[in-house]
Write a structure and sequence with these properties.
By secondary structure, this protein is mainly beta. It contains 7 helices and 28 strands.
Length: about 525
């Protein structure tokens, strides 16, 4: 995989500084990060990608794909020089040269003007577009910030602002010497040796990548026939998509390369994120670590494009409460014959016979129990598409669902018991309301979509700079009535899948996932 490369050039000529550079605030407001005496010079040349002209997402999982120009633009660079313990000792924001864009290759290269820093041994962290995203991240403070610490995210959208994507080193830097007497030369805006430029530079190469994952949808087919035993029971139409469980914590640079299982041969990272080993999920934990656990805003699949922070898990931690996923919003219209009905008279099954016994109770019978309770919708339900479900059965009215449950859970075989349970509203639990016919399906994004092993390590999760493309192949049955998961402790792998999704991954690395919704 070709990566975005940065070249760090340090030019000597002045005495070594004995003190550290200016504060983070000073650097980010145009300071050069050094004191007024004993400076050496440096230059950064960043190659963001090979080309940003390709737009179509073709190919398979493991291929590489270019994205939009807005995902490659670099407006500013922040250089953090850290000591051997990864403590920031200099924070510098050098001025960028004016982009020439003389050809396609030049469009993806940005170069700074020479700037001052202190020579010595450093771990070089390079942050692209940090000026825009710094308010979302824990602050980087000269002399105290550990660059390997956990960074909290207060505004996740800042990491993927159009033309301002936050980018960092591809891997944790190792200590390198910025020499007082070096032999490298200055480069121009295209990353080539500059004519008449400065000499005696330290040329250090650093690869960078976007700190977010990308999720899109390849969805030409929007309407599906839901079948049971070969018979059509409903029409299901995809209308919207949304992301849930966005990580609120991150390491600045990928924390280790832990992939044990992978869909393709070669490099396939699965780094450890701050929540990697945690499996004790409660409400406080979820609130502290994840944003948007319930979907509220949906985009049309054909137009949706989402970005999200890295989110990885140990095998046992691949749970609904902490895996990044997609919620599909679906308009579900049952066929008339699929609504559950019981005969008001002459029914031969035990449920219909109990229904007739309840109707025969006379004055003690609840007034809402009529002989059309299973065949007539309530209020506007019949016109707006609202229906109800209990234990996999679909009802035109909630009263019908309640009565059916009262019969199903009856233990003494007495009609009066059924009537009492219905009258006292003892049977609303487990009855789902599908307002206007909308249901929801969660699809947990797979980093290894080819895996068929239950809860296999590296199977679920999103990794920075990977592009996940999802396609719904089929909708198998009725979804959930709420745009979220039922239980955060549920494993991502179900015994029976209700949604079939194909995932594909892309320079951006591509992951494609096909789904059956159920």
């Amino acid at each position: 995989m070709k990566t975005k490369q940065l070249f760090f050039c340090g030019m000597t000529g002045l005495a070594l500084l004995a003190t550290s550079c200016s504060s983070n605030d000073e650097a980010l407001n145009g300071g050069d990060g050094t004191t007024s005496e004993g400076k050496t010079y440096a230059q950064i040349a960043i190659s963001v990608a090979n080309s940003a002209t390709t737009r179509a997402l073709t190919g398979n999982t493991g291929d590489e794909a270019y994205g939009d120009d807005a995902e490659y633009t670099v407006n500013d660079l922040t250089v953090v020089l850290a000591d051997n313990n990864d403590i920031a000792v200099q924070v510098i924001t050098p001025e960028l040269k004016t982009a020439t864009d003389a050809n396609e290759a030049d469009k993806v290269v940005r170069v700074t003007k020479p700037f001052k820093c202190t020579p010595g041994s450093y771990k070089v962290y390079v942050l692209a577009n940090y000026r825009n995203s710094q308010s979302s991240l824990s602050p980087i403070i000269k002399g105290s910030t550990d660059m390997k610490t956990v960074f909290s995210l207060s505004d996740i959208a800042k990491l993927s602002t159009t033309n301002n994507f936050f980018m960092t080193n591809v891997s944790a830097p190792t200590a390198q010497e910025i020499k007082k007497k070096a032999t490298d030369k200055e480069v121009d805006d295209a990353g080539n040796e500059a004519t008449g430029g400065e000499t005696n530079l330290n040329l250090l190469k650093v690869d960078v990548e976007r700190a977010v994952s990308k999720v899109t949808f390849n969805q030409d087919k929007l309407s599906f026939d839901v079948k049971e035993g070969g018979n059509k029971i409903a029409t299901a139409t995809l209308e919207g998509v949304s992301l849930i469980n966005l990580n609120k914590k991150m390491y600045l640079v990928k924390h280790g390369e832990l992939a044990m299982n992978q869909p393709v041969a070669g490099d396939w990272p699965y780094p450890m994120d701050p929540n990697y080993d945690l499996t004790s999920i409660d409400e406080a934990y979820i609130t502290a670590n994840f944003e948007q656990t319930r979907a509220s805003v949906f985009s049309a699949p054909s137009e949706a494009k989402f970005y999200c922070p890295e989110n990885t898990m140990a095998a046992l931690a691949q749970l609904n409460g902490q895996t990044t996923g997609v919620v599909y919003k679906v308009k579900y219209t049952p066929v008339d014959d699929f609504y559950t009905t019981l005969a008001a008279a002459n029914g031969t099954d035990s449920y219909s016979q109990m229904f007739e016994k309840v109707l025969a109770l006379g004055e003690v019978k609840d007034a809402a129990i009529t002989n059309t309770i299973f065949t007539t919708a309530e209020g506007t339900d019949i016109t707006d598409g609202t229906f109800y479900s209990y234990n996999g059965y679909v009802f035109k009215s909630k009263a019908g669902a309640r009565l059916y449950k009262a019969i199903a859970t009856n233990t003494d075989g007495e009609a009066a018991t059924v009537n009492t349970a219905f009258k006292n509203n003892e049977n609303d639990a487990d009855i789902q309301t599908y307002t206007k016919g909308y249901c929801y399906y969660t699809a947990w994004i797979k980093h290894n979509p080819t895996s068929t092993v239950t809860m296999e390590q590296d199977k679920y999760g999103v990794v920075r700079n990977f592009w996940y493309e999802l396609t719904v192949d089929n909708i198998k049955k009725l979804g959930y009535s709420q745009p979220t998961y039922k239980d955060p402790k549920d494993p991502d792998d179900k015994e029976e899948a209700s949604i079939q999704v194909q995932v594909n991954i892309k320079k951006w690395r591509v992951v494609k996932q096909n789904l059956d919704l159920e």
